[in-house]
Amino acid sequence: MSLTPIQCRMARAALYIGFRELAKLANVSPNTVARLERGESMNPRTLTKVRAVLEQAGVMFIDADDVGGVGVRMVREGETAL
Question: Which helix (H) or strand (E) holds 42?
Answer without folding.
Answer: none
